[in-house]
Specification:
Elements lengths: L1 H28 L10 H14 L5 H7 L2 H26 L4 H7 L3 H12 L6 H18 L6 H29 L4 H10 L2 H11 L9 H32 L1 H5 L1 H15 L6 H18 L6
Helix pairs in contact: 1-5, 1-11, 1-13, 2-4, 2-9, 2-10, 2-11, 3-9, 4-8, 4-9, 5-13, 6-7, 6-8, 7-14, 9-11
């Protein structure tokens, strides 16, 4: 019973953290008047840099707990589950709303099935294939729901879709290769391994030449730092724990809750949200539900 309660507590906390991450990205890139401040590359690099920095104290003990044969998988998990998606989401949100990005994030659960079948020899079923098709139809609908500039939305929504593909692959990777390892150790090694790459991006992006002591840049930087500490470091640890306790498919169901938190922030921030967006999100979630519904025992 305790295990059941704890997994649902983790589930809710992750929904709140990751659902709020999309708005933190916006606050990192734009001020309250929607004027641009930091670039997408600045926000993503700051996010990953501070996610790695806060994990540094755990590295010495983590190295002792992880065998060298797992190291490649741990580092790969950091790149696929944190580094590349951070940049893809920020680039996307430079043009699309956070509520849309959060809604498309629901595709993660579908990509768990797709990448599991393609790369990890995970068997699929007709029901799961139908669920994937329905989810992708919802994805198509939600990306053309902004009638004023649909082609721009489709193009930049593609960055989010690619990021969710990486998330799906990473979930399978964790479950198949890293499930026996300590969650904190995996997070510490995978994220600290990204400190140098993210610092390099930050150096070449021109971040340090900006007027960083101005109020708007302080707020944008703090939003990015909070995004890294909560939305990446803490959330990554909790997510690894959830996968270990409940399996990859249940963990991917966090994508059910994330869109609603993101849409809630979207309403707060006066983003463009219509009934078409809501219908499309429901179509995606129906697909996710079908994919994850257990087969009845005969």
């Amino acid at each position: 019973m305790k295990k059941t309660y704890s997994k649902w507590i983790l589930f809710v906390v992750l929904c709140l953290i990751w659902g709020s991450s999309f708005m933190l990205m916006k606050w990192g890139m734009f001020d309250k008047n929607n004027n641009p401040t930091l670039s997408a590359y600045d926000v993503a690099a700051l996010r990953i840099l501070f996610a790695g920095i806060v994990m540094l104290p755990f590295v010495p003990s983590s190295i002792k707990k992880i065998s060298s044969k797992y190291l490649v998988y741990v580092l790969l998990s950091g790149w696929l589950g944190s580094f590349f998606p951070a940049f893809l989401f920020c680039i996307a949100e430079s043009k699309i709303d956070g509520s849309l990005a959060g809604s498309l994030n629901a595709l993660t659960s579908l990509f768990v099935i797709i990448t599991g079948f393609l790369f990890f020899n995970v068997k699929s079923t007709r029901k799961k294939i139908i669920g994937v098709i329905i989810g992708l139809l919802g994805c198509t609908l939600i990306t053309v729901a902004n009638y004023s500039k649909p082609f721009e939305y489709i193009a930049y929504s593609g960055f989010v879709i690619f990021a969710t593909f990486m998330y799906g692959f990473n979930i399978n990777l964790i479950q198949k290769k890293l499930s026996a390892l300590n969650a904190l150790s995996v997070a510490a090694i995978s994220l600290t391994g990204l400190i140098i790459p993210s610092a390099t991006v930050l150096f070449f992006s021109g971040y340090f030449s900006l007027p960083l002591l101005q109020h708007t840049y302080i707020i944008s930087t703090l939003s990015s730092v909070v995004l890294g500490i909560l939305g990446t470091s803490l959330a990554t640890i909790l997510f690894y724990v959830l996968i270990k306790r409940s399996g990859g498919l249940f963990a991917s169901l966090v994508t059910y809750g994330i869109p609603f938190v993101a849409i809630g922030w979207g309403f707060y921030n006066n983003e463009f949200i219509t009934h078409v967006h809501i219908i499309a999100l429901l179509v995606i979630l129906i697909g996710v539900f079908i994919v994850n519904k257990k087969q009845p025992k005969l």
